[in-house]
């Protein structure tokens, strides 16, 4: 006798209702693995859908519904659902324990909602690997809201209203690999801000591009046992960058800032990184020439650096012997 395990993929469309328990009809389309066409089915109530979601290998998507909020135990003790998506559902609030005991969840997508506050107790102690909270209105994340997630590998928080990155976040997240804070309003990265990200068995990918960062403390990145594979700080307002900030970083992007030069040994900062990660800054010409020469030695051609370098050659030095270029 052979036991065949069947995977089910669900696309869920929920009738408009602000109370999940009172949804009159839920239209569900699902596919058995490797089969076509789709099979569609109506569920008469939300509890009926909850029961159906206990079947193995289920992916659920709920789209374009004005739910307003997810209360306590809305999706609790789900045993097999691996991926759960709520997109464009006008969710303003998620109460603690909304996903209580749902240990099968590996991916939760809450993109394009209206969340402003992320409370403690929503995702703690779940086994989520990928969490997408992008394109909301988040401005407050409570201290332990993103802690105690043993399997978390990727967190997406792009396009929110986060102005401060708190050092208390991500406590007990040993597998975390990628953090995306792109397009928020963060202004600085102080010393010790990444203290909970050390001792990872792999390098981290950190995305802080398109913020308003004017300052990165040397102790923010120069931490023992902190390894950063990718650090994207492009499209900010940085006026200073120094060698010590680059020691633990393998791939750096600080283009589109306000840097006039990079302090210390430029080779430590640039390494073998493409010069595209350093372009579009108002460098002093002497600094620009040195950066270009490092790129030349690495056989890395940059049209932007070449154009600015040729422009520098045509300029006459001022009384200090220095001159700079504009973007």
Sheet-strand content, in percent, reads: 15-25%
**Beta strands, count:** 18
* Helix and strand run: EEEHEEEEEEEEEEEEEHEEHHH
Number of helices in the DSSP assignment: 5
Helix content: 10-25%
Question: Which keywords apply here?
Answer:
327 residues, alpha/beta, Leucine-rich repeat, LRR (right-handed beta-alpha superhelix), 12-stranded mixed sheet, two-stranded parallel ribbon, 5 helices, disordered N terminus, signal
Task: Explain what this protein looks like in three dimensions.
It is a single chain. The chain has helices at residues 46-52, 218-221, 266-270, 285-297, 303-314; strands at 8-14, 26-32, 39-43, 58-63, 69-70, 81-87, 93-94, 107-109, 117-118, 130-132, 140-141, 154-156, 178-180, 188-189, 204-207, 215-216, 228-232, 249-253. By secondary structure, it is α/β, with parallel strands linked by helices. The protein has a domain at 8-185: Leucine-rich repeat, LRR (right-handed beta-alpha superhelix) (Alpha-Beta Horseshoe). Strands 3-2-1-4-6-8-10-12-13-15-17-18 form a 12-stranded mixed beta sheet. It has a two-stranded parallel sheet with strand order 5-7. Strands 9-11 form a two-stranded parallel sheet. The protein is elongated.
In short:
InterPro entries: LRR_5, LRR_dom_sf. By secondary structure, the chain is α/β, with parallel strands linked by helices.
